[in-house]
Every structure is written in structure tokens, then in C-alpha cells.
Amino acid sequence: MSVLVYTESEGGKFKKAAFEVASYAKEVANMLGTTVTAVSINGGASSELGAYGVDKVLEVSDDKLSGFNARAYADVVKQAAEKEGAKVVVVSSTADSKFIAPLLSVNLNAGYTSNVVGLPESTSPFTVKRTAFTNKAFNITEMSTDVKVIGLSNNAFGLKESSGAASAEAFAPSLSDADFGVNITAVDKATDKVSIADADIVVSGGRGLKGPEHWGMIEGLAEVLGAATACSKPVSDMGWRPHSEHVGQTGKPVASNLYIAIGVSGAIQHLAGINASKVKVVINNDPEAPFFKAADYGIVGDAFEVVPKLIEKLKEFKANNA
User: Fold this and answer.
1) What residues have CB less than 8 Å from 97, skipping those under 6 apart?
2) Is the backbone peptide bond immediately before 125 cis, with ω within 30 degrees of 0?
3) What CA–CA distance (Å, rounded) separates 199 from 196?
4) Which run of H or of E encompasses 282?
5) Where does 245-301 show beta strands of DSSP type E?
6) HSE on the CB side for 34, CA within 13 Å?
7) Cα separation of 90 and 112, whole Å?
8) Which one of 16, 21, 85, 310 has the fewest CB atoms closer than 10 angstroms to its CB?
9) Structure pTM?
10) Burial of 216: CB neighbours in 10 Å, binned 0-12, 13-18, 19+
11) CB neighbours of 110 closer than 8 A, spacing ≥ 6?
């Protein structure tokens, strides 16, 4: 009876969300005294998942599944869950997984809890903590169904590497024409920017930038670092940046390898949302800004002087090491 995890991929490569749900599933499996099985649809190498605690990977290779189809993918995961006798199925909170989860819940006659932000507080009864009211509150949800589907909030748990190895097993689910009742004719996707969910590096700006006209500085630093751009709540509230870039407890949580905050004072809600990041750097002209107490590295200085020099040095370094 494994804990089953659906690991998303794109272009034959696993997404960051896949490694996060694998990390989470491993901890849940430890609590239940069992193993982790992942189902991979046209994904990457099994060894990559093994590094995050997966014991076995059910590898599905099917050209019909080359494009995302919620009904077909949900059927694949359902059959994998039945094969493994899984009582707990973990998915992420990406757009694709949010499509799959309700279908999977119906297919398995399972309870579904979305926006989960932590490990089960108890396994008997099975209770999890989740966000509610657009991340403004938390509630504790008890899941009483035999099979449980958990939707892990993106970047809520982070990546936890493991020393184990995953075995690979070819899996050929039985799919019917009904699974492909919806056809994808085209996919339009912006490919020039890194998303916050998948970013290893995030560059964030706050009110210290004084206005949206100065955001080119944030984008310039993000470009040279290959990073995603983000902002504090006041910045999105004032309309300087879209709400999709708002990070923090009431916005998107961030669990990047490097988080650079520029002109962000460090309100407690912001710090709570980025605390899972491995290395935190702050640039602020106020030495008393709360962010300095949470940061691993801090620069006290005018962002309008520091950031352009930082971009210049990074460009020089990249040119010399090309």
C-alpha cells in the first residue's frame, strides 16, 4: 500500500512541483510506515524522482498523452492508484493538477483536500492543514474517506532530497475513446519568463522602488540571473505589478534556492511566505528593516545604486566564464 504521487513533467522533464510533491509524499509515507510510488506520464528519468524519496516509478509512455488531457491523465492516475492499492494520492496545485484532482476524486470515490500547506497533523483521524479565504486563514480538515487525494499548495513544503533510489516499471493503463472526448488543437504559452512556481531564483521588489517606472531594474537583474520576478503585497495592491507576482503568506509562497528582496521592508506575512527559500538576500537603505533579521545576507544601501552595479558585475562574470 504505497502513497501514490502524480509527478508532472513537460517536454520530457519533470517540473519543480514534481519534486516537491515527491518530497511531501515521502514524509507522509514515513508517517504511515509505507513506500512512495510515482506515476510519470512521458516524464524524465526515474533516478531524478528517487533523489526526492520515490521508491518506485510507474512509467507511462504513450504518444496519445503527449498533450495534457485532464480526463485521460486522471484515468491514468486512478488506474495507478488502484494497482498500488494507494489510500493516499498526492498531487500539486498547478493548473493541470487542479484539473485532474476533482476527476480523480470522483473516479476513486475519494475525499479531496486542496491548498494543503503541511504534513498531516494526525493520521488517525487523518487531518491536514490548508489555507482558506484566498490564503487569509487556515483550517484543519479531517478526511474520513478510505482513499484521500491531497492537493499540496505550491512551494508550501519545499524540496527535500533523499539518499534512496527509485526502481522503474513500465505501466500501460487501459484508456478508452471516452478519455479523449476533448481534443487540444493549440497551446499558446509565454516562454520568455520563468514562473515563480518553477524558479530556482526569485528577484522581488517592494515599495522602496518608489514606482512602477523603476521596475526595469528588477527585470534586468532577473534576466541576468535567469530568475522569476515577484513583488510585495503593497506593490500589487497599488497596481505597480500584477497580483500573480505577489509573494508572501497572503500571496504565492516561495521556496526558491535564492530569494533576493529589493526595497522590501519584510512584513511578517511576507517573511512567512518566503521562509522556505534556502538563501535570502535583502537590499534596503533602512538598516532597521525587519528583513535583515531573517536574511542570510544583507546590503544596506540605495537600491538605485546597488542593483545596477550588481547587474554590471554579474554580466562581467558571465562574459568571463562563457
Assistant:
1) 6, 8, 17, 91, 151
2) yes
3) 5
4) strand 279-284
5) 258-262, 279-284, 297-300
6) 17
7) 10
8) 85
9) 0.75
10) exposed
11) 89, 104, 145, 146, 147, 148, 149
For 108, the 3-state DSSP assignment is: helix
DSSP 187-220: -----SS--TTT-SEEEEE-GGG-SGGGTHHHHH
In 155-278, which residue ranges form alpha helices assigned H by DSSP? 216-225, 233-237, 268-274
- Helices 216-225, 303-320: axis angle to 10 degrees equals 30
Instruction: Compute the C-alpha angle 262/268/269, nearest 5°.
Output: 90
H or E element that contains 291: helix 291-294
What are 173-220's pLDDT values in tens digits?
A: 999 888 888 777 766 655 556 678 778 899 999 999 999 999 999 999
**β-bridge mates for residue 230, sequence order:** 204
Nearest one of 266, 264, 262, 265 to 309, comparing CA atoms: 262
The pLDDT tens digits for 94-112 are: 889 999 999 999 999 999 9
Which three three-digit cell numbers place residue 219?
527585470
Segment (H or E) for 130: strand 126-132
Do residues 43 and 22 make contact, with C-beta atoms less than 8 angstroms apart? no
- The Cα–Cα gap between 6 and 100 comes to 10
Answer whether 89's CB lies under 8 Å from 149's CB: yes
